[in-house]
Amino acid sequence: MDDNELAEELRLVVGRLVRVVRAGDIMAPGEAAVLGYLDRSGPQIATDIAQQRGVSHQAVAKAVKRLLNSGFVRAEAHPSDGRKLLLHLTSTGRSRLAEERQRREDWLGAAIHQVLTSSEREALAAAIPLFSRLTAHLLAK
Question: How many CB atoms lie within 10 A of CB 52?
Fold first, then answer.
């Protein structure tokens, strides 16, 4: 298999795995993504989150509205531009995100345990740094 064929297979398999894991989510994908960005990067404006996700500002604004109404996110005027809202993850939002992540981890972890042999689990663990390096390289471009 050449590099392009490997790239296509990897893209298909990883994409399918992500979709299958997300299908078990209770939260809407856009909402979980906003919470995840705020958890990893701290307070942000909706425009920055939209840019990082590669989606429209309107899509993020819709998710943010639901998150604000649920108490998972709070907004305050941006310190340098009062026209913008700086979004913060609340403790309730952090707890909800942790629940969602734990559910994913439990579900995927159980599948890994049931389907893969011990040596296959070791091979999968060894591949994780490779995925990280590929991701970092692609993000740097």
Answer: 14
Nearest residue to 75 via CA among 83, 62, 85, 65: 85
Given a contact cutoff of 8 angstroms between Cβ atoms, the answer to whether 93 and 68 are in contact is no
Using pLDDT thresholds of 50, 70 and 90, give the confidence band for residue 61.
very high
- Residue 46 CB burial class (10 angstroms; 0-12, 13-18, ≥19): buried
Return phi, psi of residue 54, to 5°.
Answer: 75, 35
Beta bridge partners of 44: 87
C-beta of residue 25 within 8 angstroms of C-beta of residue 104: yes
Question: Cα separation of 15 and 7, whole Å?
Answer: 12
- Token pair, residue 2, equals 């050449």
Task: Give CA–CA dist 121/109, Å, rounded.
Answer: 10
User: What pLDDT shows up at residue 139?
Assistant: 86
User: Could you give the CA distance from residue 127 to residue 104 in angstroms, rounded to a whole number?
Assistant: 20
Bridge partner list, 76: 86
Higher pLDDT, residue 73 or 52:
73
Whole-model pTM: value is: 0.80
